[in-house]
Known about the structure:
With 645 residues, the protein is of the alpha/beta class.
Amino acid sequence: MRDLAYLKLLAKEYPSVKAASSEIINLTAICGLPKGTEYFFSDLHGEYEAFIYLLRSASGIIREKIKETFGHIIPEGEQIELANLIYYPTRNLTRLTQEGRNTEDWQRITIYRLVQICKEVASKYTRSKVRKKMPKEFAYVIDELLHVDYNDENKRVYYGEIIHTIIDTQIADKFIVALCELIQNLVIDNLHIIGDIFDRGPRADIIMNELMQFHDVDIQWGNHDISWMGAATGNPACVCNVLRIAISYNSFDVLEDGYGINLRPLSMFAAKVYRDDPCIQFSPKILDQNIYDAVDPGLAAKMHKAIAIIQFKVEGQIIKRHPEYGMDKRLLLETIDFEKGTVVIEGKTHPLLDTMFPTVDPKDPLKLSEEEEELLHTLVMSFRHSDLLHKHIRFLYSHGALYKCCNGNLLYHGCIPMKTDGSFEEVNCEGMMLSGKALMDYIGDQIQKAYFLAEGAPGKERARDYMWYLWCGAKSPVFGKDKMTTFEHYFVADKAAHRERLNPYYQLSQKTDICDQILREFGLGGEGCHIINGHVPVKIKDGETPVKANGKLFIIDGGLSKAYQKQTGIAGYTLIYNSRHLALAEHKPFDPGKENTPKVSIVEKMKNRVMVVDTDMGCELNDRIDDLKELMAAFRRGDIKEAVD
């Protein structure tokens, strides 16, 4: 028996037996449909052009639908042109108009072809769900075209008249754009981003804008996302970190044009303090050209070094405040012998590649100079007052979490910290020894507090500092390494000092029993359950595979970021989960002038077609059906009075 008060609330929405039974019929019908297609992306790293192409092309699935529908009718060149039109309708319509090819005949043929593709991708949804996705101004017309009976002569004439009128009233271009966007909208039902939207690539802000327009998306935070979220809370170490990485990859556009971060104070400080320093070790990696904010590479190197030194100082201050982090060995500025030009790292003395430290006081290396302190305050305020940044960060919070359980799959970016013996690593969290799911839940709570607690509230500063620890701490599940060797990469030639050891999880998780253990920890398990990971690029060129532990684990970071593509040999993966199979789309390095359709391979076939009733949504719908049945019983018993029509 449902709570009567709850049933009375439900009766406001369904005020009669007729209304409740009608909804039961609708929900039962939905349960009998095939599940929607889920797409999993990881480690986007600001590569907005490549990601938007993959999103709009559904990682090659739209191209496959065109081939299935028209492969025996139209040549491959026209198939590719139709696909590109669907991906970028406005851009391609403009080009075709300029070329004189956007004729009435072309419009008629194209509308017919788009309607056929739309029918194909809409076939697994209810008519009402498809209609909800249609643009309002064309919903009636599109609905009619999608349900034409070609065996009925009168209907064929009616169909022809609709298209003739669309063209005659000169709205064909708008109608074509509407059809293309509807196709994009229908192909991907749910979008999962397994972390690291930010850093390295040119415009993470554009990716965030795109995600905010998507109808159903969730995000599992990566360490790069956490770093930006920490910067938005006002954590000075995170502010320095995101600036340092952006400058090191020549990504000035995302900072100034994207988020309105004023870098002039930093450039003036760097030009003055490091004017005689070539800053060779800090030369930026120029993988992309800035469009709006081109900065001289020499000045960029000085800015890079300036913010890096400030970062090492404020990181050291955090380590001093939190001995529980166990990071004293990372206080490397304090182990420098400024006279000899050496640094001691884990007991070994190394010569420094760069010995110019004009702002470091050898007697107190972690102390900021007055100018550095003033500059850092200005930069932190710039992050605190960026409206677009906070709009994006709030979206990361509202649509994100450290992990997600979805339709039998466990999604997280990095790892579940483990010991070499296969047990979960226990971490001291404010006096509580936590591991596995409990640890992830605690960390998720701290991430919320760092942003949403009021300034001065108990726990605010601890949570804000913890955001930096999550970026690079040894027991952070989004980092998953023993240390972050940023200092060593700048100042030490010995490559052995650069090495970062992965958490035992990464070796252990390649075993089926360990994956089953992790899945059970999160309430999952059995056949058809998987772990889906990002974070560590899969080096295809070295013989690695994204499918591990006999198909229990998928690591889908294959290098969408240009920075990784020499290591991986490809440009990442999309994992696609539809009602019949799991498939991997292997991306090509994105080139706007070439055909970029990924190679799609089925990696697991479902024994039985997965229907909505078999999914998490199906469980929710069945609960709703049970509630409605109870409401009908309450109506019939007279516990709740039916509304009179």
